[in-house]
Amino acid sequence: NQNIKDGIDEEEIDLFFLDLPKPFEIFEDVKKALRLGGWLAVYAPYIDQAETAYRIAKKLGFRDLTILETLEREMEIRPQGTRPKTRMVGHSGYLVFARKL
């Protein structure tokens, strides 16, 4: 294992999933290592982190950019059927997706 901030030795990678405080600091290296058509996915707990990641990815030429807010709700599995539990966490983070084209 190595620290991703020390560089990326591999090439033609299909997908990067980053969960870092400042993932955008390595977007240039990620773009170089991704295959054409490869995806960058970022988890961000705060919208400002997600927005910064989105803007920097766009500036670097990534395409098909989107931000999704994640909501958490467990499912109840019973013999008589499946349904969502009543209690739900209204917000648990953001996912940013971008594609190298």
**What is the rounded distance between the termini?**
28 Å
Question: Helical amount among residues, as a percent range?
Answer: 10-25%
In CATH's first tier, which class applies? Answer: Alpha Beta
Number of strands: 6
* Element-level helix/strand string: EHEHEEEE
Overall description:
Helix 1 (27-33) links the parallel strand 1 and strand 2. This protein is 20% helix and 46% strand. By secondary structure, the protein is of the alpha+beta class. The protein has one domain (11-99): Vaccinia Virus protein VP39 (Rossmann fold, 3-Layer(aba) Sandwich). Strands 1-2-6-3 form a 4-stranded mixed β-sheet. The protein has a two-stranded antiparallel sheet with strand order 4-5. The longest helix has 13 residues, at 47-59.
Summarize the structure.
The chain is α+β, with helices and mostly antiparallel strands and 101 residues long.
